Amino acid sequence: MTVIESVVPAEAAERKMPPGVLVEGPVVDAKFRDSYISFVIMIGGSIAALVWAFWQGIGWVEVSVFAGTFALSTVGIGFMHRYFVHRSFRCGPVMRTLFAAIATMAVQGSILKWVSNHRRHHLHSDKPGDVHSPYYDGDGNPYVTFAKGMMHAQGGWVWDQATTDAEYYAKDILADPIAMFFTRTRWYWYALSAVIIPGAIGYAFGGVHTMTGCILFSGLFRSYLMTMATSLVNSVCHSDGRYGYRRFDLDDGTTNEFVTTILTFGEGLHNNHHRFPRDAYISHAWYEIDINGLIILGLGKLGLVQDIFSAGSRTLRSGDPDGGKRPVADTEAMV
Ligand SMILES: [Zn+2]
Ligand SMILES: [Zn+2]
């Protein structure tokens, strides 16, 4: 036994991925298949969109559809994050269906995949095992240069072999028939968002020419740009204060950053968010503009969502010596 143990280098043993990470098998294959298909279509469409914009020009219809669908997708990712991942409020099946639809239509992967990845990210934030850290690669090795780490956090992580196990991180999603319906039918929702809806609006307002511009510019190019905007949260907002500022001195590189906060409707207040992961409204000052949080508070006032988790809810939690004001791992905070 001693002999067998001694042949495993200590360094390799340290780099072993934490539980809940798969490095081979059908789940890993399916992840690569999904990533290749969606990125080839989005990047191919984006190049075609830019060529079309210079060659044919784009008008107010294309720009309006771009802005409208970008905003709707951004709100969709807000619900993906604050409802499906962190359970910062409760709602009935009708609202859950609506949130699941617009979250999936952001074309950032299925609810099951997004939720699993994000919970692993919080549990191992900027440590080996994080899904998309600027400091460690997918195998848990530290980055030598900050620039390389930033590229990994901004998009390179999608091509890592390491894949999050939904059975470990997202049992609640696996048990939710609504979330799983949208997970299974994700490609239809991607098509609706990136092709069919922009195309139909374009055709209605300007025939085949505007339809083509809308599909390329307001559908495919918008999906890609929107994904890149969300990814700023993984890179810029984990830059350890190189960009933006840190309100709370946490054991990770999380940062609040203004431009990302505007582009993502509040998700860029990421240092605040890692400090209090379950809060529905993550602004801590008048200049921290959290549009997604305000939308949730507004839906609460209308009675469409319930039990919104807030700073007040934290102090009511029993059993926490500091009133719950400590970083809580999502797997613990979500139930
Ligand atoms: Zn983070
Ligand atoms: Zn989060």
Question: How would you summarize the topology of this molecule?
Answer:
Layout: H1 2-6, H2 10-14, E1 21-22, H3 26-55, H4 60-85, H5 93-104, H6 111-123, H7 146-154, E2 163-164, H8 166-169, H9 171-174, H10 177-184, H11 186-231, H12 258-263, H13 270-275, H14 291-301, H15 311-316, H16 330-333
Antiparallel strand pairs: 1-2
Bound molecules: zinc ion (2 copies).
Your description of this structure?
The protein is an all-alpha fold and 335 residues long. The protein has one domain (25-333). Helices cover 58% and strands 1% of the residues. The protein is built from 16 helices and two strands. It has helices at residues 2-6, 10-14, 26-55, 60-85, 93-104, 111-123, 146-154, 166-169, 171-174, 177-184, 186-231, 258-263, 270-275, 291-301, 311-316, 330-333; strands at residues 21-22, 163-164. The protein has a two-stranded antiparallel sheet with strand order 1-2. It starts with a helix and ends with a helix. Residues 1-13 and 316-335 have low confidence and may be disordered. It binds zinc ion (2 copies). One zinc ion binds next to helix 13.
